[in-house]
Design goal:
By secondary structure, the chain is an alpha+beta fold. It has helices at 34-46, 82-87, 145-152, 203-215, 221-229, 259-262, and strands at 8-17, 53-54, 63-74, 94-102, 114-122, 136-137, 157-160, 175-186, 189-196, 245-251. The protein has 6 helices and 10 strands; from the N terminus they run βαββαβββαβββααβα. Strand 8 and strand 9 form a beta hairpin.
């Protein structure tokens, strides 16, 4: 007897979104989210519900230059065509950079071995309409990127980082493998990048909020390190604004996309 069941394929997507008008990645009741918007768009094509699995759950207002997600679908549409189909239907604050077929064992979240975030601080006293949606406009005190880099360096390795975890997380532990850290000033902008196996709920924004104190010489390097080593969450009181944070990219042992699709998609501002 012939097997007439339709062939199911797993499709991976590389996704960009401007997070300003989204209540985060994850579907939530009565809120506009990236996951729901893409799921609904896929469903409008195939006329059935679909679940989209993302590599990370960005918070409300956080951007993504190369979020990765996957969904399972049957039907005649080739995997590589989904990017064009979805872009023709999605709103202009979401864009699919690429789509490709992957093995059924491949998972956007669980196969990933690292995520990289960048936080951008704009330090000029004068606001700028064209950069404000993508930065934290912080000009109240001078910031020293050398000090910020020095504070970041001891984070490399496997550590308990409960001091940088917001309440409400469902994660069973606070272990994080930090693989790379970097802070650079470029003109009026300071870029802070962290690459890790995964990120705790609210981790990057809480981290930047405390790094600001180091950069303006309000907190010593020793005090900064003591706070996270001894999990003194009560001293981490400020979360940096969501607007400055971007999920840069996600790493996999094997990835079906060429580097130009996913690796370096978030431009840095250069003011003339």
């Amino acid at each position: 007897m012939a097997n007439n069941r339709p062939l199911v394929q797993r499709v991976a997507l590389v996704i960009q979104y401007q997070g300003t008008h989204f209540h985060g990645w994850q579907r939530q009741p009565n809120q506009r989210t990236v996951q729901e918007e893409i799921e609904n768009t896929i469903s409008s094509v195939i006329n059935k519900p679909v679940t989209l699995h993302g590599a990370g759950r960005t918070d409300a207002g956080v951007h993504a230059a190369a979020q990765v997600a996957h969904f399972d679908v049957s039907g005649p549409i080739p995997a590589e065509k989904w990017a064009t189909i979805l872009n023709s239907r999605l709103n202009n604050d979401i864009l699919i950079r690429g789509s490709a077929r992957v093995e059924s064992s491949w998972h956007s979240r669980f196969t990933a071995i690292w995520r990289r975030y960048r936080y951008t601080i704009y330090t000029d006293k004068r606001p700028n309409l064209f950069v404000m949606p993508f930065v934290w406009h912080y000009y109240q005190a001078s910031l020293d990127p050398v000090l910020i880099q020095a504070a970041l360096n001891p984070l490399i390795g496997r550590h308990h980082l409960a001091a940088f975890q917001r309440a409400g997380s469902s994660r069973p532990h606070s272990w994080v493998d930090v693989q790379d850290v970097n802070c650079q000033r470029e003109g009026s902008f300071i870029h802070i990048e962290v690459q890790a196996s995964g990120f705790l709920y609210g981790m990057m924004r809480l981290l930047v909020g405390l790094l600001i104190q180091v950069g303006q010489k309000e907190r010593s390097l020793e005090s900064f390190t003591d706070i996270w080593v001894n999990q003194r969450r009560e001293f981490v009181k400020h979360s940096a604004p969501a607007s400055g944070l971007c999920l840069l990219r996600v790493g996999y042992p094997e990835f079906p996309f060429p580097q130009e699709v996913w690796y370096d998609n978030m431009p840095k501002f250069l003011l003339y």
